[in-house]
Amino acid sequence: MTKRICVTGASGRAGRVTVAELLAHGYDVVATDLVRSPHDLGTGLLLADLTDHGQAVEVLAGTDAVVHLANIPAPDIHTPATTFNANMAMNFNVFLAAAQVRIERVVWASSETTLGLPFEVPPRYAPVDEDHYPFPTTTYTLSDNTSVAIRYFPATFYLKTTTALPTGFGFTGAKLSGAAPDGTSLYGYEIKSANFSTTAAYTAAIPPAPRSRSSVHFCRST
């Protein structure tokens, strides 16, 4: 049976490419966003406001996995309070809805800014390693830092989650994180470096790894 994968934030740049990647590999895609895309997604677009939990549940019902890209993607687009509140509501609603409709795989986009990048505020020390986390300097970053804790909430704990961290830096995940060469030492999670949209699509489609509940991928932005 063909897997049915939801992509939130499908009208955005990363969302459009992720939808295309999944369609190219034969997956049934439920594309959703708050606004219509000016581009042809190759599939229908379901308009939904994921800050509303009921809509999140309806969007995810009947899907096998979700690539969650719907967020205010940077600081200074909206007011600080709006950025934090909207992103937290969307992230929590998608994780909780995924648990409620029994989706096992959730891939979601976080940000390298959780470590303090691009260091408009000087880092606490250098060179930066994984112990520098968390270092939120905007409410956008704070929403990312706080959302990481959602997977420890009892209602969502069983979910297999992959956190994709887009980066504009030309480093592998191991070098950026200070992880061991085998890529296993960042909080015990698997670390990989790859194209963002390919990573998001691939990890949503593959079966969850039996040895790990969570993984982190540093991905080059496209």
The major β-sheet equals: 8 strands, parallel
Number of helices: 6
- The overall number of domains is 1
Radius of gyration: 16 Å
- Determine the structural class based on helices, strands and strand pairing: alpha/beta
Helix/strand order: EHEEHEHEHEHEHE
Tally of DSSP β-strands: 8
By oligomeric state, this entry counts as single chain
The dominant shape is globular
Q: In CATH, what is the class? A: Alpha Beta
Output mean pLDDT: 79
The strands making up the biggest β-sheet line up spatially as 3-2-1-4-5-6-8-7
Beta-strand proportion:
15-25%
CATH superfamily caption: NAD(P)-binding Rossmann-like Domain
Quote the distance from N terminus to C terminus. 31 Å
Q: Which CATH architecture? A: 3-Layer(aba) Sandwich
CATH structural fold name: Rossmann fold
The low-pLDDT segments are: 169-194, 208-222
Helix content: 25-40%
